[in-house]
Amino acid sequence: MDKLLQAIDNLPEISKELNGTLSKEAFLLVRNLISKHVQIEFKGKKDELMNQRLAHFKESDWQNYVKMIGMASQAHNALMIQRTKQVIEHLDMS
Fold it and tell me: Which helix (H) or strand (E) holds 83?
């Protein structure tokens, strides 16, 4: 997480609109950084879930195979939401 916030801090000035929201350009920069850092952070969990999914595939256990796909998606989305909230707080936009 610290690396993400450092990367946010290292961005050129983050421009905001008059209403306090990020400009389109700043939003795209921030969103891209969050996505990159979440992908790196999620890799271990993704690999773990992929191995479990593969085991279900080899056993033709389709119900649990599909369940693992959903679990991976939910875990990734939860991490994205968590990191996005932390960045919003860091940028003092809450």
Answer: helix 62-90
24: tokens are 């389109």
Closest to 8 (Cα-Cα) out of 70, 84, 94: 84
CA dihedral 48, 51, 52, 56 (to 10 degrees): 170
DSSP bridge partners of 22: 16
SS3 33: helix
CA distance 69 to 61: 13
Q: What is the pTM of this model?
A: 0.83
Residues 44/26, Cβ–Cβ less than 8 Å:
no
pLDDT in tens, 9-64: 898 878 888 787 888 888 999 999 999 999 999 999 999 999 999 999 999 999 99
